[in-house]
UniProtKB/TrEMBL annotation:
<dbReference type="InterPro" id="IPR008367">
    <property type="entry name" value="Regucalcin"/>
</dbReference>
<keyword id="KW-0106">Calcium</keyword>
<feature type="domain" description="SMP-30/Gluconolactonase/LRE-like region">
    <location>
        <begin position="20"/>
        <end position="277"/>
    </location>
</feature>
<dbReference type="GO" id="GO:0030234">
    <property type="term" value="F:enzyme regulator activity"/>
</dbReference>
<feature type="binding site">
    <location>
        <position position="112"/>
    </location>
    <ligand>
        <name>substrate</name>
    </ligand>
</feature>
<keyword id="KW-0479">Metal-binding</keyword>
<protein>
    <recommendedName>
        <fullName>Regucalcin</fullName>
        <ecNumber>3.1.1.17</ecNumber>
    </recommendedName>
</protein>
<keyword id="KW-0963">Cytoplasm</keyword>
<comment type="similarity">
    <text>Belongs to the SMP-30/CGR1 family.</text>
</comment>
<dbReference type="GO" id="GO:0005737">
    <property type="term" value="C:cytoplasm"/>
</dbReference>
<dbReference type="GO" id="GO:0019853">
    <property type="term" value="P:L-ascorbic acid biosynthetic process"/>
</dbReference>
<feature type="active site" description="Proton donor/acceptor">
    <location>
        <position position="217"/>
    </location>
</feature>
<dbReference type="GO" id="GO:0005509">
    <property type="term" value="F:calcium ion binding"/>
</dbReference>
<feature type="binding site">
    <location>
        <position position="22"/>
    </location>
    <ligand>
        <name>a divalent metal cation</name>
    </ligand>
</feature>
<feature type="binding site">
    <location>
        <position position="165"/>
    </location>
    <ligand>
        <name>a divalent metal cation</name>
    </ligand>
</feature>
<dbReference type="InterPro" id="IPR005511">
    <property type="entry name" value="SMP-30"/>
</dbReference>
<keyword id="KW-0378">Hydrolase</keyword>
Length: 310
């Protein structure tokens, strides 16, 4: 018998382009995708069943949007150096600031948040980055990685970070994965689900070992324990086995600046991919900046976790 040939994944742009799409979060209860556009200062919602795409402008640069557990239409949003609570029904231009949950990096006032996710217990892991003083140029080693617990307490887990990116957990293997983008690598930490602590960082994947261009951006993990990584400035999504440092698959995306990924859909077997259309001396024409959906990957992700706040 001939071995079954794997079908090529199907790719579709599902939203119109934005400036800097980031932080996709699939809300499994609502069957909706939330994401942000940082420089447009907007939060976004996309509902696949209807194709409806709505947005709401905020007063500052939103970098992530994650639902709050048990509070319908309430979200934590990274806004510059603040974590804030937002109320938003998902309709155009109706978001309302409720309160500030936490402030970080007071010693680096030009910093901003970048990537963030809730860990398996709903604690918010959120990383910062230095000031971007011109497109693609940053104050380096100014960022940190924080854990914000349900009581609002802030814990600095790492410092001297260029750009915090790509947070995900493998509970079965007690692992936390993280990327500092300008290291061009992926780190693995030992993770304690009971305390939310991380320890013993080690490099498990290096771009240079595989001849990859661009940087490590957002990532997620499938139920097999493989990472799916947005390759910013690389026009692709990477599938990586972090246990052996293997590059398993490269999936082309019709946008240079691929920013992040998350699994979604009723069976969590679709991969949503955000992108950017930043002009850094070269115009990035549509579909650059769109959010894309990949079908037919023959893998599944885990449900995204909501943030727990008291």
């Amino acid at each position: 018998m001939c071995p079954q040939k794997q079908m090529a994944p199907q790719l579709q742009a599902v939203t119109e382009p934005v400036w800097l799409g980031e932080g996709p979060h699939w809300d499994h209860n609502e069957q909706a995708l939330y994401f942000v556009s940082i420089f447009d200062e907007t939060i976004h919602k996309y509902v696949p069943e209807t194709g409806k795409h709505t947005r709401s402008k905020l007063d500052g640069k939103p970098t992530f949007i994650i639902p709050i557990e048990g509070k319908k239409h309430h979200f934590v949003v990274g806004l510059d150096r603040l974590v804030v609570e937002i109320q938003w029904t998902g309709e155009d231009q109706t978001a309302r600031l409720v309160r500030t949950v936490a402030e970080v990096d007071q010693d680096n006032p030009n910093n901003r948040f970048n990537d963030a996710k809730a860990d398996p217990r709903g604690r918010l892991f959120a990383g910062t980055m230095g000031h971007e003083y011109e497109p693609g140029k940053f104050d380096l080693k100014k960022g940190s990685l924080y854990r914000i617990d349900p009581d609002g307490s802030v814990h600095r887990l790492e410092s001297n970070i260029d750009i915090s990116n790509g947070l995900c957990w493998d509970l079965q293997r007690s692992a936390f994965y993280f990327a500092d983008s300008f290291e061009y690598t992926i780190r693995r930490y030992d993770y304690d689900v009971e305390t939310g602590s991380i320890a013993n960082a080690k490099t498990v994947f290096k771009y240079s070992d595989h001849g990859l261009e661009g940087i490590v951006d957002g990532m997620t993990i499938d139920t097999d324990g493989n990472l799916w990584v947005a390759n910013f400035d690389g026009r692709q999504v990477l599938k990586i086995d972090p246990r052996g440092g293997k590059l398993l698959q490269k999936i082309p995306i019709p946008a240079l600046q691929v920013t992040s990924v998350t699994f979604g859909g009723p069976d969590l077997d679709q991969l949503y991919v955000t992108s950017a259309s930043m002009n850094r001396g070269e115009e990035q024409l549509p579909p650059c900046g769109s959010t894309f959906r990949l079908d037919g990957l023959e893998v599944k992700g885990h449900p995204n976790v909501n943030v727990r706040l008291q």
